[in-house]
Write a structure and sequence with these properties.
Blueprint (H helix, E strand, L loop, with lengths): L2 E3 L10 H19 L1 H7 L1 E2 H5 L5 H4 L7 H22 L1 H22 L7 E2 L3 H14 L4 E4 L2 E6 H18 L6 H18 L3 H4 L1 H19 L4
Antiparallel strand pairs: 1-4, 2-3, 4-5
Helix pairs in contact: 1-2, 1-5, 5-6, 5-7, 6-7, 6-9, 7-9, 8-9, 8-11
Pfam families: Rhomboid
GO molecular function: serine-type endopeptidase activity
Membrane topology: Multi-pass membrane protein
Length: 226
């Protein structure tokens, strides 16, 4: 998931907390690339978590499958994180990041609870939460997706991203944790609104639009379609 911003005024420099998050992801991922036992011990794994190894819910978000996976997540975080930091500051950014990571993994745990061998890694849940938080603050942003040379309004991207995640969950497309992506975005959406309730006054219509995929997922799950 790679997206570039067209109208973006916050790139005067990365905040120290964003740098530390990126460094932690790089360091732990590199360790995992070169140490199979370390990777196996800290990845998201249903069997391990159900045996009581809850630390995997957190540590798996700092491991990646390969360098490209790591690069895409950190590249995306590099662009979106400063938007969130500029509106909420360091501490609330970290709350959104880690809450999104955990909610994303909770979604994976819920949808794969009986698949004891199911495993996953990556910061995608946390990054998805930061993306959705950034869109809530700046729905007027224009995003460029790799290989698509036209700008896409941020809110259109956000809705399409979650609809595709639902499609991926339903049809089990690719070796991708669509449920973690969706859960992370939901976490970012909810926590951001809790931390910035003034958004209800400024962007109520946009908040409603961005909630549509969440409602669709809820309905599909209740109907047993997922």
């Amino acid at each position: 998931m790679v997206y570039l911003k067209k109208k973006y005024k916050y790139m005067g420099g990365l905040d120290i907390v964003v740098i530390l998050i990126i460094v932690a992801n790089v360091a732990m991922s590199l360790k995992g690339f070169n140490d199979f036992s370390f990777f196996e011990k800290y990845k998201f794994n249903i069997g391990g978590i159900r045996r009581g190894e809850q630390v995997r819910m957190l540590t798996s978000g700092f491991l990646h499958a390969d360098t490209m996976h790591l690069f895409f997540n950190m590249f995306t975080l590099y662009f979106f994180a400063p938007v969130v930091v500029s509106f909420l500051g360091n501490i609330k950014f970290l709350i959104i990041y880690f809450s999104s990571l955990l909610v994303g993994n909770l979604f994976s745990l819920f949808f794969h609870k009986d698949e004891y061998h199911y495993s996953a890694v990556g910061a995608s849940g946390a990054v998805s939460g930061i993306i959705y938080a950034g869109i809530l603050f700046r729905p007027d942003m224009s995003l460029y997706l790799m290989f698509i040379p036209i700008p896409i309004p941020a809110y259109i991207f956000g809705i399409g991203y979650l609809l595709y995640s639902i499609f991926g969950m339903k049809n089990k497309i690719g070796n991708i944790g669509h449920d973690a992506h969706f859960g992370g975005a939901v976490g970012g959406y909810v926590i951001t609104l809790i931390l910035a309730p003034w958004l209800f006054q400024e962007n109520l219509f946009m908040i409603g639009l961005l909630a549509i995929p969440i409602l669709i997922l809820f309905v599909l799950q209740r109907l047993g379609k997922l």
